[in-house]
Design goal:
Rossmann fold, seven-stranded parallel sheet, 17 strands, single chain
C-alpha cells in the first residue's frame, strides 16, 4: 500500500518525496492504527489523510471547525482531480441537498464536516448507512481545555467516533504541548495509538521582536522593503484594526480590514479578496486566519502582543507555507502586556491559572536575548540544539553590534535603589537627566547623588535601557504599581562583578538580508522575475475565470521553477514541483505557451541540462521503491544486484531507504545473504539491542571488530526489518 501511496503522491499531487513523518503517518493510518499527529502549520498534515482516503475503499470523514478551510480544501482537491465535498452551515439548502445526494451515490472519497453538523441526528443517521474507513479530527487541540482554543463541542467527538467502529481515528494539530497531546489521546480513547511529533522548527520563518515605539512608522518601513508581497497584520482590537487599515490605505497600500464588527458578508468578501490576490494585505484581529491555506503569505506582523505562544505560533505559521522565506515581526510594549493581564484578571480558577502560565511563557520568549527558537521549541517540549539559527533577530545581530552598557546600567539601578524602588522608568530617567519637574522637586530627588549624572543620554535612551535590563532579568516591574524593582542578579552588576552588554535600540524592522543569502535556494535567488510575473498573470486569469484562489492552480514555488528552468515541453514540465498529471492535463498547454512565447521573444533556451539532472535525481530517489517492490516479489539480494547492475551493498542501501520510508520487507531473504553462523548472527543482534542499530561503528567496536562492516550492514537491515525502522 505504501507504493500506492507514493504513486498518488507523485502522479496526483506532483510531489516526488514525502515530507518528514508523512510516510510513517500514512503507513500507520493504512494499517488501521489510531494515530495522533503533531505537525507544524505548512508541514503537510492534509496529505496524511488525503492519500489514505484515495486508497481506502470507504469514506474518509474530516471534522474541522474551520468552515473557510473546508471550501478551500475541497477546491484544491478538485484541482488535483480528487472527489471531495463538505457539509456545513455556509451552504444553501439546495447545495446542501445536492451534496447529500452526491454522498449517497458514492461520488466522494472525502467528506469535510463542522463538529456541529456531525452532531446532528440526520448527519449521523446518513453516515451509519456508509462504510467509513477513516475518522479524521483536524485542529485536535480544541478537545483539550489545556489547549489555547478549547471548544466544548469537540469533547463530544469521542462519543461520535464510536459510530464508526471499523474506522481508524486520526487526530491532527499544529500546536500542542505534551500535556495537550496526552489529553487528546485520553479523551479520544485512542487504543493502540501512535503519536508522531514533527519538529516545531519552521526553518524558513525569520523571527523578530522589536520594541514598539512608533508602530505606524515601523510598519511603513517594513512594508517599504516588501512591495507586492502578501501579508497579514494582527491587532488586539477592532478599533486598532480600523485605524491601521485607514492609515495604510492612505499611504497607498493594497489593504482591507477583518474583524468581528464587520458583517459576515463583508468579512467573507475581504477574506476572498486576500486569498484571490485582489488585495495584498489584511489587517485583522485574531478572528482572521483560521482556515487560511494561502501558501504565499510572505510576512506576518503583530502590531500588538498575541495572547499566548500557541496563538503566536499558529499565526506566524500562516506565512511561508510554500517553504520560501517569510518574515515575522512582533512589536512589543509594556502596555500591551498590561492589556492582556487585565483580561486574565477577569478569569477565575483553572482558566486564570492556564492564562497566566501562557503569558509568562510569551514574555520569556519576547525578552529572550539568545536564539529565539530555543524558548519557542522548548515550550512545545522540543530541545533546539543549535546555538545560532541564522533566522532570528538575535542570531543575525553581529557580535560587534553589542554595546557595553555596564556603567549606564549601574547609574540607572543605583538611582532606583536611592528612590527606594518606588518609581517607574520615566521618573528614573528624569532624575538621571537632572529634570526640574514638579514631582522630582516635591520628593526631594534633586538632592540625590544620582541626580543629573545621566545627561550624556536622551530620555528615550534611558527608557530603552530599562527595557533591556528587564529583559535580562536585572529589573522587574511591580505588577500593581508599575514601579521598577531590583532583582538579586542586579547586585553583582552594581558591585562591578558582572558586565551588561546588549543592543539598546530594538525598534528597527529591516532584519533579513543575511538570512536570505543563507537560506535561499538557487531557484529562489536566480529565477526570471519577468517570466514569473507573466506566469502569475496567466494563473490569476485562469483562477478568476473559475472563481478559485490562484494558488490552487499552482503555488509560487512551481512558478519559480518554471521561471528558472524554462521548460518548453510536457516531458519537461511534468518534472516541475507541484505539476501532477491532473494539473498537467488541465493547465499544461496554457503555461507552456507563456514560457515558449517569452523564451522566443527573449531568445532564451531551456535549461535542459539542469532539468535533466533534476528529473534524474527525482527518478533515482524512486529507485529504492522499485528495488523494494522487486525484493518483496521474492527476488534475492544477488538477483537484484545482477538485475540492476550494481553491487550487493547498493541493493542493501536501497532496501534500507525502502524500510525507512515506512515499508515492510521479509528479513529472511536478507539473512540468507549473510555468511555468518547462527551463533555470530545472534551475537550481532544482541549488540544492536544493547547499543542501538542506527550507527554501525558502536556495534563494530562492541564486537571487538570481529565482524566486518559488510556483514554488519546486512544484519542491520535484517534487524530493522524485523523490529521496525
Amino acid at each position: 500500500m505504501m507504493q500506492q501511496a507514493r504513486t498518488i503522491l507523485q502522479e496526483t499531487f506532483g510531489y516526488n518525496t514525502f515530507r518528514p513523518l508523512q510516510g510513517e503517518v500514512i503507513r500507520n493510518v493504512l494499517n488501521k492504527k489510531d494515530t495522533l499527529v503533531i505537525m507544524p502549520t505548512g508541514g503537510g498534515k492534509s496529505l496524511c489523510y488525503q492519500i489514505p482516503a484515495l486508497i481506502f475503499d470507504g469514506l474518509t470523514i474530516v471534522v474541522s471547525p474551520l468552515i473557510s478551510l473546508m471550501k478551500d480544501q475541497v477546491e484544491q482537491l478538485e484541482e488535483f482531480g480528487v472527489s471531495a465535498l463538505f457539509l456545513n452551515s455556509s451552504l444553501t439548502p439546495e447545495m446542501y441537498r445536492q451534496n447529500v445526494n452526491r454522498l449517497k451515490r458514492g461520488d466522494a472519497k472525502l467528506l469535510y464536516l463542522a463538529p456541529e453538523t456531525l452532531m446532528m441526528e440526520s448527519t449521523r443517521r446518513l453516515l451509519t448507512e456508509m462504510k467509513v474507513d477513516c475518522f479524521t479530527i483536524d485542529e485536535a487541540h480544541c478537545i483539550s481545555e489545556w489547549g489555547h482554543d478549547f471548544r466544548p463541542e469537540y469533547r463530544q467527538l469521542a462519543r461520535v467516533r464510536k459510530d464508526f467502529p471499523g474506522a481508524v481515528c486520526l487526530a491532527l494539530t499544529a500546536t500542542a504541548t505534551p500535556r495537550v497531546r496526552d489529553d487528546i489521546q485520553q479523551i479520544l480513547e485512542m487504543k493502540n495509538s501512535n503519536a508522531f511529533v514533527a519538529s516545531f522548527d519552521r526553518k524558513n520563518l525569520l523571527l523578530k521582536v522589536a520594541d514598539k515605539e512608533k508602530p505606524l512608522e515601523q510598519i511603513l518601513d517594513f512594508l517599504y522593503t516588501r512591495p507586492k508581497q502578501s501579508g497579514i497584520i494582527y491587532c488586539f482590537s477592532r478599533r486598532q484594526v480600523d485605524e491601521l487599515y485607514s492609515d495604510l490605505k492612505h499611504e497607498g497600500h493594497s489593504v482591507l480590514p477583518y474583524h468581528a464588527g464587520l458583517s459576515e458578508m463583508q468579512r467573507t468578501r475581504n477574506q476572498d479578496a486576500f486569498i484571490r490576490d485582489n488585495v495584498q494585505i489584511i489587517v485583522a484581529t485574531i478572528a482572521f486566519g483560521m482556515g487560511i491555506n494561502k501558501p504565499d503569505v510572505r510576512f506576518v506582523i503583530h502590531h500588538d502582543m498575541p495572547q499566548n505562544i500557541e496563538s503566536y505560533y499558529q499565526q506566524i505559521g500562516r506565512s511561508g507555507r510554500d517553504g520560501l522565506q517569510a518574515d515575522c515581526l512582533l512589536l512589543y510594549s509594556y502596555s500591551d502586556k498590561q492589556k492582556i493581564q487585565y483580561f486574565i484578571n477577569q478569569k477565575e480558577g483553572t482558566e486564570k491559572k492556564v492564562a497566566e502560565k501562557h503569558l509568562d511563557a510569551l514574555i520569556h520568549y519576547m525578552e529572550h536575548d539568545g536564539c529565539r527558537r530555543t524558548p519557542l521549541m522548548e515550550y512545545f517540549g522540543e530541545e533546539y540544539k543549535k546555538e545560532n539559527c541564522g533566522m532570528c533577530d538575535n542570531c543575525l545581530r553581529h557580535k560587534d553590534a553589542l554595546q557595553d552598557l555596564t556603567v549606564q546600567a549601574q547609574k540607572y539601578m543605583s538611582c532606583i535603589a536611592r528612590t527606594n524602588e518606588m518609581y517607574g522608568a520615566y521618573h528614573i530617567a528624569d532624575v538621571l537627566k537632572g529634570s526640574k519637574a514638579k514631582k522630582i522637586l516635591e520628593n526631594g530627588h534633586e538632592k540625590l547623588s544620582t541626580y543629573g549624572i545621566g545627561k550624556e543620554w536622551s530620555k528615550n535612551q534611558w527608557i530603552q535601557l530599562s527595557r533591556l535590563l528587564i529583559r535580562k532579568g536585572l529589573l522587574k516591574k511591580d505588577p500593581q504599581y508599575g514601579s521598577l524593582l531590583l532583582t538579586d542578579d542586579a547586585v553583582a552588576v552594581l558591585k562591578g562583578d558582572e558586565i551588561v552588554q546588549g543592543v539598546l535600540d530594538r525598534t528597527q524592522t529591516n532584519t533579513g538580508d543575511d538570512a536570505r543569502r543563507k537560506t535561499s535556494s538557487d531557484v529562489e535567488k536566480k529565477y526570471d522575475e519577468h517570466l514569473f510575473e507573466e506566469l502569475r498573470k496567466k494563473r490569476k486569469e485562469l483562477a478568476d475565470a473559475q472563481e478559485i484562489p490562484p494558488y490552487t492552480i499552482f503555488p509560487d514555488t512551481t512558478l519559480m521553477e518554471m521561471s528558472y528552468f524554462y521548460p518548453q515541453s510536457e516531458d519537461k514540465l511534468i518534472g516541475i514541483y507541484g505539476v501532477g498529471s491532473a494539473k498537467m492535463k488541465k493547465y499544461g498547454d496554457e503555461f507552456l505557451e507563456v514560457i515558449r512565447n517569452y523564451c522566443s521573444e527573449k531568445n532564451i533556451e531551456e535549461r535542459s541540462r539542469d532539468l535533466n539532472r533534476k528529473l534524474k535525481k527525482s527518478t533515482s530517489s524512486q529507485k529504492h521503491d522499485r528495488v523494494g517492490r522487486e525484493y518483496n516479489s521474492g527476488k534475492s539480494i544477488d538477483h537484484l544486484a545482477e538485475q540492476f547492475g550494481v553491487k550487493k551493498v547498493t541493493i542493501l542501501s536501497n532496501l534500507k531507504k525502502f524500510v525507512d520510508d515506512g515499508n515492510t520487507i521479509d528479513p529472511a531473504g536478507i539473512l540468507a545473504s549473510s555468511g555468518l553462523s547462527e551463533r555470530k548472527k545472534d551475537e550481532v543482534f544482541e549488540s544492536m539491542q544493547k547499543v542501538g542499530p542506527e550507527l554501525l561503528k558502536p556495534v563494530y567496536e562492541d564486537l571487538n571488530k570481529t565482524v566486518d562492516y559488510n556483514e554488519l550492514r546486512i544484519l542491520q537491515l535484517a534487524y530493522m526489518a524485523e523490529n521496525g525502522s
